[in-house]
Specification:
Number of strands of chain A: 0
CATH architecture of chain A: Orthogonal Bundle
Structural class of chain B: mainly alpha
Radius of gyration of chain A: 16 Å
Helix content of chain A: over 70%
CATH topology of chain A: Helix Hairpins
Strand order of the largest sheet of chain B: 1-2
Distance between the termini of chain A: 49 Å
Strand content of chain B: under 5%
Helix content of chain B: 55-70%
Order of helices and strands of chain A: HHH
CATH class of chain A: Mainly Alpha
Largest sheet of chain A: none
Largest interface: A-B, 13 and 11 residues
Oligomer: heterodimer
Number of domains of chain A: 1
Distance between the termini of chain B: 82 Å
Largest sheet of chain B: 2 strands, antiparallel
Number of helices of chain B: 31
Mean pLDDT of chain B: 76
């Protein structure tokens, strides 16, 4: 019964994160939304780990937190460079991959 | 696989033990002159004697080896036939006459009763067969090994070819001295000899055909030696092409033999002979094979009706004529019949028959050649037709079963005919290189004593003068016919052949008397002679009047060109009276004359009981094969009646000519034989003369009738075929392909292929245009797609599971 509540909370967080990734134009806000996505996933890992009585979920969550820290570091560095080149971090204007 | 092969291998194995070195290594015979050919060809011009010394040395070596081989063969036969070794020292005493010289005899009376069995066992004389298996090439199961096949017949030919070729080489060093192609001349003489020796020693049919063709090529090169004259190169071509006609027969005959007697597996001559002699092969197959091979004999050995090339071959240098007529080339056909004798013996049913194709052709040829020799002005042509006639004798002898007589005549004929030809060369050497007996010769007896004597001996031997070699060999042939029961022990009863042989004997004596008379008796009629009759030119009118078809024949107008025969000879014209030739010319003549005289002792008839038995029938004893590969022949005895009739016939022929020439000398107005003789004949003589001068119209028949009638319709037919069939096919094909091409272009290429290509291009462009809109470069757009797709995938998974 209590597993559902954790999963619902994770899904809600994930949806908020997806909304943030797709809809926000500020690069820093997008990175923060990605953190929300990752943490939603972490919540699921831990909930399932507790549910099954194993520590594996928690180990995964720790890994994800570590990788997420590295990811945010690289992401902020990219955003910083974009800002230096364009004096803006508006993602609408970053369309160099246009085909 | 068969007894035949077993026999061959067994033969080789047994023979190899007792045979001498030269018999087992007979390859040296063709190898020596072939090496000489290469040496002369490549280095001859740098040698002091321009290559002639190599040729003479090589042929001397061949001759010495042939003598050694002869001696070894004699001892081989002695050891195989029971080894009456009492008189071995006599074996080599008469090597000069023949390799078959005296030794002991296999006379039954001398054998003790107890030795009867041994005599039976040793009755077979094994030939010496040496074979190198797989040395040549292999097709399927058929192994074309090369090898040599030495028996008495081959040894005799080695001796004859070696001797004649050596003498011709020596003669040539003087005769063609200074010629522009002196070196090549000697090179080809060597190759010619090598080819003939290869032919003689061949142990399978493929080698035989190869050598046969090589001989033909060499004769072509030598007949056309002075090819600058159109006439000479025509003669060479005629010789070559006429021989090709017969070669078709040779190939077909050999193929038939290969598939019947050789069982489709063997070309080996011994295998084929054993199969033919044992009766294992159907009579029809042998008949077809022998008839085909007769065609080859007709062309190669100058038999009627393909003999026409032989007289024209006189265009070559005289020593070459001697070589061709005595030892090589023309005797190849006779040799082939003798080599494959079981095929002919069984195929033509020679035994006990009154007539067969081979004997008939031979008999007709003797008479044709003999009659044509009467009307020739050219001394070489007299001799050429004489050769045709004598070859006819040999073929006739083979046709009636007198194998030994044919081979014996081949040998004696080689001696006296080479002597006569070289004598004619010597005569022409003295007479401004003319061969015209009527215009440039006469009375040479006084000027050329040595040539005269040797020529006379040759003439007498050829005419069958008693006790000279030609008498014995011809008599054996006549006795071998067995006609009218005049001789005993013959294989058949060929009455007609006997009659024709005797008539030809009379004709031979007559035309040789005429030839001798015109050349050596009377007064010299040469250019510088006080007796020259050139002012009258009676013969020109005569020739024009009678030779209505002269233009059909390159050589009919020989009086115009006779002087040009050897005109390439770089000798200065011999001004003044004729003179005797040098020793290099006269010594060969004397050797040959001596052999023509004494060769008769090689085969003394068995009936001559006053001669020791060990001297009788030596030739038959050593030369005739006594083995499974040879049919069992009967041997006719010497017949005094036939000998007397033959001598009488010859004497009558001779006497008639002498009488006629007495009339000529007396200035009879009807005599036509001299240059200033009357120009017209009447009635039958004119008719006969016309027929003979035109050579029975055979050349006219071949050139104007056969070739002309065939080539006209063929040309028209070919033209029609070309226009109506070939052109129609070509044009039709072109039209069809043009239409197909048009359809292909318009429909296939423009619409289908281009449509596919262009269509795919357009579609790709459209798809790309649609897809590129998604590539807008916005990361969030991509992310939205990714999330959307993931959501759909997740939905699908959830619903599916």
């Amino acid at each position: 019964m209590w597993l559902n509540q954790f999963l619902l909370l994770g899904a809600l967080l994930f949806c908020i994160g997806v909304y943030g990734v797709l809809a926000r134009r500020n690069g820093v806000m997008v990175l923060m939304s990605i953190e929300l996505l990752l943490n939603a996933v972490n919540l699921n890992f831990i909930a399932f780990g507790a549910y099954h009585g194993t520590p594996v979920g928690q180990v995964f969550a720790l890994f994800v937190i570590g990788v997420a820290a590295a990811e945010v570091g690289v992401g902020l560095a990219i955003v910083l460079l974009i800002y230096r080149n364009r004096s803006s971090i508006d993602l609408e204007s970053v369309d160099l991959l246009k085909g | 696989m068969t007894p035949a092969v077993l026999f061959a291998s067994e033969t080789g194995a047994i023979a190899a033990e007792s045979a001498g070195w030269f018999l087992k290594n007979a390859w040296v015979f063709p190898a020596i002159p072939f090496v000489s050919f290469l040496l002369i060809l490549f280095f001859g011009k740098r040698m002091p004697k321009k290559g002639a010394e190599v040729g003479v040395a090589a042929l001397s070596l061949v001759f010495v080896c042939a003598l050694a081989a002869g001696a070894q063969w004699v001892s081989h036969v002695n050891s195989e036939t029971g080894g009456h070794g009492a008189e071995p020292s006599a074996d080599t005493t008469h090597e000069d006459d023949a390799p078959s010289a005296a030794a002991h005899a296999t006379v039954k009376a001398e054998v003790e009763p107890g030795a009867e069995q041994a005599e039976q066992v040793h009755h077979v004389v094994h030939p010496v067969v040496t074979e190198w298996k797989s040395d040549w090439w292999t097709i399927g199961r058929i192994d074309f090994g090369i090898g040599t096949f030495v028996d008495g017949q081959a040894v005799m030919m080695l001796f004859v070819v070696g001797l004649i070729s050596l003498l011709v080489h020596v003669f040539s060093t003087d005769y063609v001295a200074g010629d522009i192609r002196y070196t090549h001349y000697f090179a080809f003489l060597s190759l010619f000899t090598a080819s003939m020796l290869l032919l003689v020693l061949a142990n399978n049919l493929v080698m035989f055909i190869t050598a046969w063709e090589l001989v033909g090529v060499c004769s072509f090169a030598l007949i056309g030696h002075w090819w600058e004259d159109q006439q000479n190169s025509n003669a060479a071509l005629k010789a070559f092409l006429t021989n090709r006609v017969g070669d078709i027969g040779l190939l077909i005959g050999m193929i038939v033999l290969f598939f019947t007697a050789g069982r489709g597996e063997s070309f080996n001559i011994i295998d084929i002979n054993v199969a033919a002699a044992s009766g294992a092969v159907s009579h029809t197959a042998l008949l077809v094979a022998s008839l085909c091979l007769i065609a080859a004999v007709m062309s190669k050995s100058g038999q009627f009706i393909l003999h026409t090339w032989l007289p024209d071959a006189m265009a070559g240098p005289t020593p070459v004529s001697a070589l061709i007529h005595a030892a090589t080339m023309v005797v190849a056909g006779v040799f082939m019949v003798a080599r494959l004798y079981p095929v002919f013996f069984s195929g033509l049913s020679i035994a006990g028959s009154p007539i067969n194709a081979l004997a008939a052709i031979g008999a007709i040829t003797t008479m044709v050649g003999g009659s044509l020799a009467f009307v020739q002005r050219d001394i070489k042509k007299v001799l050429a037709y004489s050769t045709v006639s004598q070859l006819g004798y040999m073929i006739m002898a083979l046709g009636v079963g007198a194998w030994t007589a044919a081979m014996f005549h081949l040998m004696t004929h080689a001696f006296f005919k080479a002597c006569l030809f070289l004598g004619a060369g010597s005569v022409s050497h003295a007479c401004n290189h003319s061969f015209d007996m009527k215009q440039d010769m006469g009375g040479l007896r006084k000027y050329m004593p040595r040539t005269h004597v040797t020529f006379l001996i040759g003439t007498l031997a050829l005419s069958g003068f008693p006790l000279l070699s030609g008498f014995w060999s011809k008599d054996e042939i006549l006795a071998g016919t067995g006609g009218f029961g005049l001789s005993e022990g013959a294989n058949g009863n060929y009455h007609l052949m006997l009659v024709m042989g005797l008539m030809t004997g009379a004709m031979t004596a007559a035309y040789m008397t005429r030839c001798y008379w015109l050349t050596f008796l009377g007064e010299w009629r040469g250019a510088d002679s006080p007796n020259a009759h050139h002012g009258t030119h009676g013969h020109d009118d005569e020739a024009v009047a009678v030779t209505v078809l002269a233009h059909h024949d390159d050589h009919a107008a020989e009086h115009d060109v006779a002087g040009a025969h050897d005109s390439h000879d770089a000798h200065d014209a011999h001004a003044g009276l004729p003179h005797e030739s040098g020793p290099r010319i006269t010594v060969p003549l004397m050797v040959l004359a001596a052999l023509a005289t004494v060769a008769s002792v090689a085969n003394i008839p068995a009936a001559f009981s006053f001669v020791p038995a060990s001297w009788r029938l030596r030739f038959e004893h050593y030369i005739e094969p006594k083995s499974l590969y040879f049919p069992k022949l009967d041997h006719s005895e010497f017949s005094p009646v036939i000998a007397i009739i033959s001598v009488v016939a010859s004497s009558i022929g001779c006497a008639l000519v002498v009488l006629y020439f007495r009339k000529v000398q007396a200035g009879d107005p009807k005599a036509t034989e001299l240059t200033n003789g009357p120009v017209s004949r009447g009635g039958l003589p004119k008719l006969a003369y016309g027929v003979l001068v035109n050579k029975f119209y055979l050349d006219w028949l071949y050139t104007d009738v056969i070739v002309a009638t065939v080539k006209g319709p063929i040309a028209r037919g070919a033209n029609w075929f070309n226009k109506c069939v070939l052109d129609a096919i070509v044009i039709g094909a072109a039209t069809v392909s043009k239409r197909i091409a048009g359809f292909t272009y318009a429909v296939l290429d423009q619409q289908v292929v281009d449509g596919v290509v262009n269509g795919s291009g357009i579609k790709a462009a459209e798809t790309g245009g649609f897809l590129r809109r998604m590539q807008n470069g916005r990361v969030q757009g991509y992310a939205a797609l990714m999330f959307g797709a993931t959501a759909i995938l997740a939905g699908v998974l959830v619903l599916a599971i």
